[in-house]
Amino acid sequence: MERERKLKDIVKRPLNSKKYDYGHLLIIGGSKHYAGAPLLNALGAAVAGVDLVTIAAPKRVADIAVAYSPDLVSYPLSGDVLDTDHFTEINSIMKRNVTAVLVGSGMGREKKSFDLLAQLHKEHKSIPFIFDADALYCTNLVDLCAKDLLIPNLKEFSLISGNEALSSSAIKTTAFSVGCTILAKGPIDYISDGKRVKEVEDTSGKSVYLAKGGTGDILAGVCASLIAQGVEPFDAAYAGASAVKKAGASLSRECGPFFMPTGLLGVLPRALVAELGK
User: Fold this and answer.
1) What is the pTM of this model?
2) Cα 231 to Cα 68: distance, rounded to the nearest angstrom
3) At residue 189, what are phi and psi to the nearest 5 degrees?
4) CA atoms within 13 Å, Cβ hemisphere of 81
């Protein structure tokens, strides 16, 4: 698959395009108690245009995902949580044209899960990894690189950076220090690769209703989908954050807070067209 695509390049596609030309995203996450998060990742990713989405997760999670949507591929793993015993199985999946890996949603914070992610990242340094949710608690175990993306909320950003407050200078300094792009979520989203900083703010105030469980999983899926299609992490993070905020504001103008996170999926395509078609 061609790398380093511009956002507009994934909208206008050649007539001879075929499956895998625009990416294969692998989602690794979930646990017995958090079965829905990888599914929300996958649905957001599929809407955002990647050619194929595969979920590798404990059996309960994988079975729920494929039962909910036949558009997805799921790979059931034994047990209730991810651990190093799953390395060989997941490693074999990653050799199937995987172009980006999203890790952490619903995974839990057991050491054996963290050790698995560290092993996979070390083995596949050429593939971009997107760290979200629980995976952000193990970034000290991996050698992050410019291809990677971290998506922390305010609490997680404080953990990574040591800063209680989120600002342009704080995120730029932190991104430079860790060596990869960061999308820090909040009332204003901040994106930096250590050299540049962009902000995403909804001046209407309607996107405040996005502050509910599950919307961040969809955001992570959208960003990971764009990266899997060849967009660099900084541009993917900015476009993903902008599109999700636009979609949230659009939905909230009609519904206020009275919607489920999956309600975003119906309005995301228009927001993505508006954002990526610039």
Assistant:
1) 0.96
2) 28
3) -85, 135
4) 17
